[in-house]
Amino acid sequence: MEPTMEKDKKELLINLEGIFKSCEERAAHYDANNLFFQEDFEELKGAGYLLIAVPEEFGGYGMLMDECETLTRKLAYHAAPTALALNMHIYWTGLIADLYRQGDKSIQWVLEEAGRGKVFAAGHGESGNDIPVLYSTCKAEKVEGGYSFTGHKMFGSLTPVWDYLGFHGQDNSDSENPTIIHAFLPRDTQNFEIKKTWDNVMGMRATRSDDTILNDVMIQDKYIVRKVPAGFNGIDGFVLGIFSWALIGFGNIYFGLAKRVVDMVLETLHKKKSISLGRPSMAYHPGIQRDVADMVLELEAIEPHLDTIAREWSQGKAYGAAWGIKIFAAKCHAVEAAWRVVDKAMDVMGGYGISRNSGFERLFRDARLGRIHPSNTYITREVIAKGMLGLDLDYQPR
């Protein structure tokens, strides 16, 4: 007899196909009105999407990274901002589920809370911090019973609905050995405020990634989940998991968006007429055919790269320190190639593409944000080059 959870998983996947299409229908409305994707969120949560990475024993579906990223990619094809925001929750549950399966039960409460329907978001973005997670401009001070945090967090996707904000701060009490304090902020905590900063941003508007201001926020010890050295020497399994789940998620989101754009181009080309070619449509234009071929070649290279990294992470391949290079490279390759696809698509779409009614203009704006997500092009190339050259990534000055 087939296990109940396996049946539930099949039912989930069937239900999600219809919900993803509903998300697509609402995407333009959210973008035009600077609205959070509330209806998407409620439908996806109700269907069980937020439980995909939660182990079965905590009420989830127990999917590993490769399965989760397949769904992330599919959702992004229909509604990239929705997929991007929910990736923040998925990466917390995914990385902590990985640690749990490896025997680390220290943050089991996150999986328990997620199984009860609680929502987790990420607060790692900070102005002036070009290496988020590993360093912080947010001040962390040890106090009785926990830590006090003061700082300004940016890009807080899921702001309207999170129950816990996973974030970090830096304890500089020992100036020679600064420490990064990773913690979770419960929603009912005092002394923080949400600052609306996301109206009319360039793209991914439906994520409502507003700022969070921490004003001497007291976090109890039970919500302090890691204390590690600042910098690259502080990368343990927890920190590496943040990078892996977040960045591979980003890569799949922008890949899914690029796939959608190519499909739009293929459909539109047969409708674009030419007065000079004497052919049925612009699909017969040799220059446009070359551009279409280039876009497809980009997509064909992104997919196996992302799939390989997700599969090997799920299999527990022992790459050691090389995992950082592989993760950064996969994300960078995916978002830069996805942008080349979308940018070239603008040439093919022509004047029609800049119209809001085309639907492409919104996707064009969304696609550009992929390259500024951590890790951006600068830190990615620094990590890859220094890693391959055997240089100390924490050596100062950089």
Automatic annotation (TrEMBL):
Matching entries from Pfam families are given as: Acyl-CoA_dh_1 (PF00441), Acyl-CoA_dh_N (PF02771)
| Acyl-CoA dehydrogenase/oxidase N-terminal domain mapped to chain residues | 22-90
Top-level taxon of the source organism: Bacteria
List the keywords (alphabetical).
FAD, Flavoprotein, Membrane, Oxidoreductase, Transmembrane, Transmembrane helix
Question: Where would one find coiled-coil regions in this protein?
Answer: none
Enzyme class, broadest EC rank: oxidoreductase
- Record-linked InterPro entries: Acyl-CoA_DH_CS, Acyl-CoA_Oxase/DH_mid-dom_sf, AcylCo_DH-like_C, AcylCo_DH/oxidase_C, AcylCoA_DH/ox_N, AcylCoA_DH/ox_N_sf, AcylCoA_DH/oxidase_NM_dom_sf
Q: GO molecular function terms here?
A: oxidoreductase activity
Kindly list the cofactors needed: FAD
Q: Taking every annotated instance into account, which residue ranges of this chain make up the domain Acyl-CoA dehydrogenase/oxidase C-terminal? A: 255-389
The family database entries (SUPFAM superfamilies) matched by this protein are listed as: Acyl-CoA dehydrogenase C-terminal domain-like (SSF47203), Acyl-CoA dehydrogenase NM domain-like (SSF56645)
Span-the-membrane segments of this chain are: 237-257
Enzyme Commission number = 1.-.-.-
Q: Which family does it belong to?
A: Belongs to the acyl-CoA dehydrogenase family.
Record's protein name: Acyl-CoA dehydrogenase family protein
